[in-house]
Known about the structure:
12% strand, 5-stranded parallel sheet, 9 helices
Amino acid sequence: xxxxxxxxxxxxxxxxxxxxxxxxxxxxxxxxxxxxxxxxxxxxxxxxxxxxxxxxxxxxxxxxxxxxxxxxxxxxxxxxxxxxxxxxxxxxxxxxxxxxxxxxxxxxxxxxxxxxxxxxxxxxxxxxxxxxxxxxxxxxxxxxxxxxxxxxxxxxxxxxxxxxxxxxxxxxxxxxxxxxxxxxxxxxxxxxxxxxxxxxxxxxxxxxxxxxxxxxx
Length: 217
């Protein structure tokens, strides 16, 4: 039976969230298949240019020096052009207006720095990310205009679709490929949505693959 370990990660190094700690996790899991949050069309060019490497990519390269594994890029959802830059501007606007939101983000960053991946893969992180999302939405509705409100709703829809698309790519691969152990490395901001999607998939397609969340053991 195929099994995939979900490991929520940080794309940029911060404290204990670094490539060396992630390599330890990969060695402990021992995946034959590594599902990556990267676009299939960007896969070769990204790995050809070390300046583009994020924490996950550097850790994977180190892991592959020790063990063989198949890399599978699964982030094939196309976000509308220019949408990301608008949302980054909205993020800055929210942070400038909401001290509670800034405090929540700072606290999450502090715990990530000190506790590393064990924090990003915990129920405490899920609670923190949900609270930060609540504060973000609260600020948009309190200080933002109608365009900001509509863009926030569109953003939430885009995230759900993107996460569903990554899971669909993984399930398509599992349906046609035999393996024993896999790992899905995905940014921690996706954790809540991804886990909801996995729960639904486990109910609808229980025999395709089993899942577990890495919890530090």
